[in-house]
Amino acid sequence: CSLRGLINLGNTCFMNCIVQALTHTPLLRDFFLSDRHKCEMQSNSCLVCEMSQLFQEFYSGHRWPHIPFRLLHLVWTHARHLAGYEQQDAHEFLIAALDVLHRHCKGDTTHDNGKKANNPNHCSCIIDQIFTGGLQSDVTCQVCHGVSTTIDPFWDISLDLPGSSTPFWPLSPGGDGLTVNGESHLSGATTLTDCLRRFTRPEHLGSSAKIKCGGCHSYQESTKQLTMKKLPIVACFHLKRFEHSAKLRRKITTYVSFPLELDMTPFIASSKESRMNGQYQQTVEVLNNDNKYSLFAVVNHQGTLESGHYTSFIRQHKDQWFKCDDAIITKASIKDVLDSEGWVVRHQTPRSFSLENRLKEKTEAGRDY
User: What is the pTM of this model?
Assistant: First the structure.
């Protein structure tokens, strides 16, 4: 059993909620419990070795809360901007932890067959296999309509919310409601799908942001559109609830509904290209199953920007949800999860099962979720 609380060492709820989400990521669990990490540095300074020990503790069957003292100090050592007992941002901790784990995994740049790893980082370490996706940016010249494309790796997608200083146009502006990806929404409600549609819509870059066009050989106005070139196995969505500007610092409390099942097909680059070529329906039928995700963890923040507390909901088995509040673990309903004020929302695609099976082949026996 992996239900185990974590002692708060002094404003460390930001770390505890992310650790709960990571330890309940099935592919990470199978990797660390199969003892596949080969340390190439001093083990007392290796975050991967510490995470391996942490997974062993979580799945040992012990029920008393674990004290993550060594994990905290290793993170402080390798991510000094998080050092100290002040309250930190859980999202910043997630990205810092993934970065350090990626560096300490020492993943090869090729698979055994000599081909490059199939992710934008060209790394086959377990972190990149699970979390890395590719974000495609298409900049289109408004004069010659030439397109410049770049692809950058990402571990998460940060999404603006209505109520921020960034303009936001929801997809449910009025009337009796709207159906998106099979979900029925009340009018005026904001959904995760709304945020993703806004994130991937074309943006006009005005005269103050002209770029040099390779076709025109001069500076021109353009439009920019982001799409997903490659989806990760585990998708992390960060809802930007903290707003920092020269004039104010505040928390945005807008409720955002997120689904148990999320279809990412409309947001991938190949879907956009197919729409332009009139082949969208055929593409959707081919890609739809590969791009569906299931919710398995939600990180929440209660309180204000200056004083707050992080908790998380994690899924164990198919429909069993639990709330993790530092040392206290309680059973939760699906309604509790979906009604919560999400901060970091994590979904997993069925594509994980093929990788999971390869990892399980290295273990003596498979484990249930």
Answer: 0.83
